[in-house]
Amino acid sequence: MKIGDIELGERPLFLAPMEDVTDASFRAVCKEFGADVTYTEFVSSDGLIRDARKAIAKLVTNDAEAPIGIQIYGSIPEAMVEAAKMAENAARIAGGHGADFIDINFGCPVSKIARRGAGSGMMREPDKMVQITKMVVDAVKIPVTVKTRLGWDEESKIIVELAERLQDTGIQALTIHGRTRCQMYTGEADWTLIGRVKENPRMRIPIIGNGDIDSPQKALEAFDRFGVDGVMIGRATYGHPWIFREIRHFLNTGELLPPMSVRERSELAKRHLAGSMALKGERIGILEMRRHLSCYFKGLPDFKETRLKLVTLTDPEELYRTLDFIADRWGECPAPEASSVYGS
């Protein structure tokens, strides 16, 4: 599979862009375990053109993350064009590696985004969605991709026709989350419609499937049954970034890897914590690691009191000691069953 001239190999695995999750420290961990492509957290087009510090900070990437996409969102065409130009020049503006491609977020279902007509709110205005995409494609020289959903609700699943229209704007790949906006993250993702887009003889660009990939078996089914070119994994990476290694091993051998031991998870959590603090400072780094630390050890018995420490401690040395305690206390225990570790 290729995005423009970017060669990704066969059956690439994508780390989904997730706000307050896929910062540089988490992206580094996922790359370590075999994520082929990563994305920044989504960046507000309005924030970029206002030169907002938080938005600019999200443009910083590094060479080890490549290939990486900078994802932007918004509903004002002119602002999206300017934001895309800034993302294209991220290396000059913010330093680091910059963007290998730009991804447009037409999929975020969060109310404060969608109600303003951005993210998946754009599913109610497909003509405007296509207009913005075309304007962004024409404004930059690097590849542009789109991430979107099946439609706004059950009565407006427009993705098959919409995919053709988006392709005609010149995008280089399309990611489809198999839910409508109104579903948010509930129910099961509908991969049959993703498969219909891929089977459409008019479609020439790669199709990346997203939604409920939480095991190696589901990833294989996505490739073999629905024919997608790539698979994107989101919430199942919470506390389980090694899922990329597990999936790749299964795709290559047909065999499941044994679960990562508790001791290995503890050491990984310590490295992830150090990376988060190096990136964002001690206080913010610890606060933003809590969502990960509470998931790294999901499924362990008699863990409630220790989990509470992981999400309340503010001193890094105490956190490191707690992680060492976990390794010593549960390190020789059988790792939790995969079904209790995988997210959704």
Please describe what this structure looks like:
The protein is of the alpha/beta class and 344 residues long. The protein folds into two domains: 252 residues, Aldolase class I (TIM Barrel), CATH 3.20.20.70; 69 residues, Orthogonal Bundle (Non-ribosomal Peptide Synthetase Peptidyl Carrier Protein, Chain A), CATH 1.10.1200. The strands form two sheets. Strands 3, 4, 5, 6, 7, 8, 9, 10 and 11 form a nine-stranded parallel sheet that branches. A two-stranded antiparallel sheet has the order 1-2. Helix 8 links the parallel strand 8 and strand 9. Helix 1 runs antiparallel to helix 12, helix 4 runs parallel beside helix 7 and helix 7 runs parallel beside helix 8. The longest helix has 19 residues. The C terminus is likely disordered.
